[in-house]
Prior knowledge:
single chain; alpha/beta; 5-stranded mixed β-sheet; Glutaredoxin; Glutathione S-transferase Yfyf (Class Pi), Chain A, domain 2
Amino acid sequence: MARLVLVVGPPAICAGSLRAWLALRRAGASFELAVWESVAKTAKAAGARAFPVRPPVLLVDEVTIWGALAIGEFAAEQVRELLPLDPIERAIARAIAHEFVNDLRDLETFLPFDLNHVFDPPGKLLRGVERDLARFLELVSVCRGRWSSAGPFLFGPFTLADAAAAPICCALANNRMPLVGEARAYVETITNLPELAQWVQLAQKGLEAEAVGEPGRAQAEEDEPGPRTAGAASALEPRERRSDEAASRSFLKPIGTGTRRRR
């Protein structure tokens, strides 16, 4: 069996590393963790060619796979349930995962993935951020409206689309965004994943060792949240003023919080 080593960046701020971690963990893969800086320096010193410039990277024996989506596809080749079995649904899941990773740039910049801090909710959002947030909520609403009876994730069971959405869900939680309905339920489902809790622990203690043994998925079925009641998704209206009482009821539980700071 091939030796797998997942090379990650700082867990608290590296969204791609979280996506790759979730895909491999949900696939039940047995792999090791390695710190990006030390591995990258070693590869450069050894004259390695085509070594990527940023994490995540999956080392499969002597072969290098880089990028969260490529690593996720590798995991899905081992466990086909990481993508829907229906060919059309698989294509849709791939399209959504690609969009979450590559196309919501304004949202990613304004509401960054950061497990070390809790932010006060933003007031007026820039137009590009509003557009990206509306798109994210639209995709969640469409998927949950169609596949909610099959499970609590976008396509029922957990897929690569959910791994791609995870950093966005964490950012919405840590920016205390006032989500409601299906959007709030979905974000809570993702942020309550046991694998995410393990990632938060890594972020809090840091990755001091160059390689850390990582067991495969254990107790996965028991840990997976059960189906949630389907309901109509409500698009966020970031320009609308909300009372303090109403807003407090809508705030999501922050993830891996540290120092709270204002914008």
